[in-house]
# Entry
Amino acid sequence: MVNINTESTIKSPRRRGRVPQGDPNEQGGGDDNGGFQDFFDKFFGGQGADGGNIRQRSLGSGVIVDSKGYIVTNRHVVEKADRIRVKLQDEPLASPGHDAKLIGMDQETDLAVIKIEVDRPLPAAKLGNSDGMEVGDWVLAIGSPFGLQETVTAGIVSAKGRNIVPNRQFQSFIQTDAAINPVTRADRW
# Structure
């Protein structure tokens, strides 16, 4: 299990026209917006220090599937990222982690593959075959919701062969009652 940090540049929505401030000598004072204009500019479309663009950071998790540094995560974790960094579990907390390269992603399955360059073989998870899974089998969801490390929850397989959305290439989903945080759905591994 790895932690994934991403940074994205979000173009700020067009700035609304600023309300002109009145003459402070006029009745009622000059700033009749109660000082809220700066608040609204900052949080709802005002110009940022870099010309209006907003830097967004997000967290996710993934699983090393190849000792050469290939990692499977969710597409929504990395899809709009300008920079992807991966932190391995055996690294010190102060370590900045490793820059990752996006190898590919699939919108329909919400999966992505990224790769980090390392100078040693990494321990890789062995992917199983879900054909042998049965309703009632125990399952684990491991991940890093909200940046917390090594979070584990347990449940059972509730159903197999669920077809959720018609006319999709991939169907036959596994339903589980293991708690999976919607913020970091890469915890499903």
